[in-house]
Design brief:
The chain contains 18 helices and no strands. Helix 2 packs antiparallel against helix 9, helix 3 packs antiparallel against helix 4 and helix 3 packs antiparallel against helix 5. The protein folds into 2 domains: about 375 residues, MFS general substrate transporter like domains (Growth Hormone, Chain: A); about 55 residues. By secondary structure, the protein is mainly alpha-helical. The radius of gyration is 21 Å and the shape is globular.
């Protein structure tokens, strides 16, 4: 029970973090199921369907680094409350829009507010829990937020079939309202540090450097690689990304302090994240679409297919968080993605009918077990590798990596599958690619992650030019 190892204020912090992140993850995972119903009601073809999803993911991925910086400069509670209120209002707006064009625009705005939620949530956890309890707290956070990511399609399918597609957006209002009520009880943010400011130049370069390449990945099939629009986006986006790195290296108060990449576990963990979440996004996308397009599953049944993996995550994530603190994250981060990838590899035996009990369920259970071993240690290791002052931007960086990995993976689905639709042959190619990516992520973790039991990773440097392993200080973070 959570009451045995947390204080009342810690339980409030953890509940707020779970509810806020749950809403953001649920919105991103439940919408795919509703796309056919949205098109039937509001019109629009495949391009409109893509942008209903991608406008949210694009703005989320582009602004998440800025959100992490805002959290570190202006305070966790202030930024989180702004994100919650904006996210709730835009959820209501999405549920009542009259046209698909309006829905795309509001979804883009919603992604900006969504970007404020996850970095602030995880930073709140790190601020509230001592080092020896952070793994367990993040494990609890992982257990509940992972439900939104994996079970979102199930909820979306039920709402579409039983009610109306608009409820897919409106259902977010409940967790947001609960989170706002609980967040109002949190302690006020400490006074802003004198001279602290937002890196506006870095923010603009970061938005362009992330957003334009993602735009290219989404739209190159429609415009063509030789289109002036695509070429201009590639050139400006690439130049902006290079400019962002150079600016962050020289500005006194960078949005993304490049010295945090000198922390080995932070860098290795983010590289592993790219492959793990790229494989996760591609595999779950391929499964949900294949079950509907080729195997004849309804939207509800296709969504419910992933429920067993969510149950495994609920049951194991908090325990795995504790286990990671005892045995170290390296072994779990090495084994977990390999096991999850093996779950996708089992799907290579699926036929056109995709019998659930023999061909889908065993793979889903194995995948869920592997992800339960992976997510909490991965999150705790990355956030524990840097000092508390930069926990917001560290969380934002890792979330940006996972979102961009998912965007790239799904954008490459047609190329990797070799078909514009997902039949059994293309499904096999896609899950093979997913398994390969996840196994590679596990290998990177096993080779690159370093356990430092009862020692710190990296504490906040005493100066802007000092980043070195620390001793047992009050700012310690267990890695």
């Amino acid at each position: 029970m959570m009451t045995r190892w947390t204080t009342a204020p810690q339980r409030t912090v953890l509940s707020v973090a779970i509810l806020a992140s749950f809403a953001a993850f649920l919105d991103g995972s439940a919408v795919n199921i509703a796309l056919p119903a949205i098109s039937a009601d509001l019109g629009g073809g495949l391009s409109s369907q893509q942008w209903v999803v991608d406008s949210y993911l694009l703005s989320l991925g582009a602004f998440i680094l800025l959100a992490g910086s805002l959290s570190d400069v202006f305070g966790r509670k202030r930024v989180l409350m702004t994100g919650l209120i904006g996210f709730g209002l835009t959820s209501v707006a999405c549920a009542i829009v009259p046209t698909v064009e309006t829905l795309i625009l509001v979804r883009g705005l919603k992604g900006v507010f969504g970007a404020l939620l996850v970095p602030s949530s995880l930073a709140l956890i790190l601020d509230a829990f001592p080092a020896d309890k952070q793994g367990r707290a993040i494990g609890s956070w992982t257990a509940f937020t992972s439900i939104a990511t994996i079970a979102g399609p199930a909820l979306g399918g039920v709402l579409v079939d039983a009610l109306l597609w608009r409820w897919v957006f409106g259902v977010n209002v409940l967790p947001v309202a609960l989170a706002v009520g609980l967040a109002s009880r949190l302690e006020e943010d400490p006074p802003r540090s004198p001279g602290a400011r937002v890196d506006l130049v870095g923010a603009l370069l970061g938005v362009a450097g992330l957003g334009l390449p993602v735009f290219v990945l989404i739209e190159h099939a429609r415009f063509g690689w030789d289109s002036p629009i695509i070429l201009a986006a590639m050139i400006i986006g690439g130049a902006s990304f290079v400019g962002f790195v150079l600016w962050e290296l020289r500005t006194p108060q960078p949005m993304l302090p490049m010295r945090i990449f000198r922390a080995r576990n932070f860098t290795v963990g983010n590289v592993a994240t790219f492959f793990i979440y790229g494989g996760l996004s591609l595999g779950t996308f391929a499964l949900v679409v294949f079950l509907q397009q080729s195997a004849g599953y309804s939207a509800t049944m296709a969504g419910l297919a992933m429920i067993p993996s969510s149950l495994v995550l609920i049951g194991l994530s908090a325990y795995i968080g504790r286990l990671s603190g005892r045995v170290g994250a390296r072994a779990l981060m090495g084994a977990g993605p390999v096991i999850a990838g093996s779950g996708f590899a089992l799907m290579l035996a699926a036929t056109d009918e995709a019998d659930y009990l023999t061909q889908v369920l065993p793979a889903v259970l194995l995948f869920g077990f592997g992800m339960a071993l992976t997510v909490a240690p991965l999150t705790a290791t990355i956030l524990g590798a840097v000092g508390p002052t930069h926990s917001g931007i560290a969380s934002a960086t890792n979330n940006a990596v996972s979102r961009i990995a998912g965007l790239i993976a799904v954008a490459l689905a047609a190329t990797l599958g070799g078909s514009a639709t997902i039949d059994v042959d293309s499904f096999h190619r896609l899950v093979a690619a997913s398994a390969t990516a996840m196994i590679l992520g596990g290998a990177i973790s096993a080779v690159g992650i370093r356990d430092r039991r009862r020692r710190t990773g990296f504490t906040e440097p005493r100066s802007h030019h000092d980043l070195r392993p620390s001793g047992h200080t009050s700012a310690s973070r267990v890695v």
